[in-house]
From TrEMBL:
UniProt-recorded name of the protein: Cyclic nucleotide-binding protein
Keywords: Ion channel, Ion transport, Membrane, Potassium, Potassium channel, Potassium transport, Transmembrane, Transmembrane helix, Transport
Gene3D superfamilies hit by this protein: 1.10.287.70, Jelly Rolls (2.60.120.10)
Transmembrane annotation, as ranges: 21-41, 47-68, 80-105, 111-130, 142-165, 205-231
Cyclic nucleotide-binding domain boundaries: 250-364
SMART domains, A to Z: cNMP
PANTHER family (UniProt xref): POTASSIUM VOLTAGE-GATED CHANNEL PROTEIN SHAB, VOLTAGE-GATED POTASSIUM CHANNEL
Domain of life assignment: Bacteria
Organism per entry: Bradyrhizobium iriomotense
Amino acid sequence: MSKPLISALAKFVAATAGRNMTKAAYVAVAVGVVTMTLLTVDPTHEAAHHGASALLWACLAYFVFEWLVRLRHMASQQRLELYMLSSSGLVDAIGALAVPVALVLGVESKTAWLLSVLWVLKVIPGIPGLRQLRRVLVLESGPLLSVLVIFLMVVFLASVAEYFLERDVQPQTFGSVPSALWWAVVTLTTTGYGDVVPVTPLGRIVAALVMISGLGVFGLWTGILATGFAAETRRDNFLKTWETVSKVPFFAALGPSAIADVTHMLRTMDLPARTMIIRKGAQGDCMYFIASGEVEVDLPGKKVALGEGAFFGEMALLGNNVRGANVTTVKVSRLLVLDLVDFRVLMARHPDLAETIDAEAKRRALENK
C-alpha cells in the first residue's frame, strides 16, 4: 500500500477520533456481529466457514487500524494517557485486542470470535439518548438507590419468610434462604416462572404481598426515570429555544427575564417540505422563528429564503394582522410559534418590550413603503 494512501486513511480515521462513529464503523460492527452470529449455526459454519472468517478478519483489521490511528492522533496531541483511560479508549482497545488475545492464548477459533460481540459497545458513544440517560441516572441516583434498597429488603425478607413457612413442606425448593432467594426475585419482578410455588396458606399470602410490592417498586423506578427524562427534555428544549430567541434581532435588546418569558411561551411546530405556513391575505395572530430548516417568502417580484435563526410573520404582532405574503417550507423545518395573546402578556410584564415593538413597527412601516 502506497504511503499517500496510508496517509489519507490515517487522516480519515483521525478526523473521526472523537466520540462519534463513521458510517464505515457502523457497517463493520453490523457485519461483524451478524457474521459471528451466523457462524454459531452449524450448517452455516460448515458451508461458509472461509468466507465468514474473511469478513470477520476484515472487520477486525478495520477496528485495529482505527484504534492504532487514534492512539497516534492522541499521542500527537499529548492526550494519549487520557484517551487510553477513557471509556471510548477502553472500548476501542477491547474491540481491537479481545479476539487476537483469545486466539494467542489458544482459545478455539469459533469460541474466540464470540468476543466480537463486544464490538457493539463501540456504538454506545454515538447514541444521543444514552448520554441523556446517563445524565438522568446521575441526577436521580439518590431516589433510584433508595428504591433499590427497598427492592433488596423486600427480596431478603420474603425469602426468609418463605424459608420459614415452606421448608418443611418443600425442602427441595425452600430448603435454604439462598434457594428461596430465587423464588423471591422471580416473584418480585412479576416474572412468575412457576418452577417454585408456595403451597401453604401463609406462604401464598406472603407471595401475594411480594407480587404487589413488585408492582410498586417497578412503578417507582418507572416514575423516577420518566420524570427525570421529562425534566431533561424540557431543559434541553428550553436551552435550544433560548439560543434561537436570543439570536433573533427583534428580541436582541430584551433582558434575560423577557427572553426567558418568550422561551416559555413558544410552542414547537414540525413541518415537512413544501408546506404552506402563511397564506397571503389571511388573518395573522402569531409570528414564527425558524429553529431548523428553511422557508421561502413569496414577495412581489422576488422570493426570499430564510434559514435557521430567522423570523417572519412579526407584523401580526405589530398591529397589521393581514398577511402580506405566502410563506412555504423549502425542506423539513422546525418552527417556534409565538401567539398574539402571549405576546400581549409579555408586553404587560415587560414595559421595555413596548418600546422595542414601537421601534420595530416604525422601521417595518418605512421598509414597506
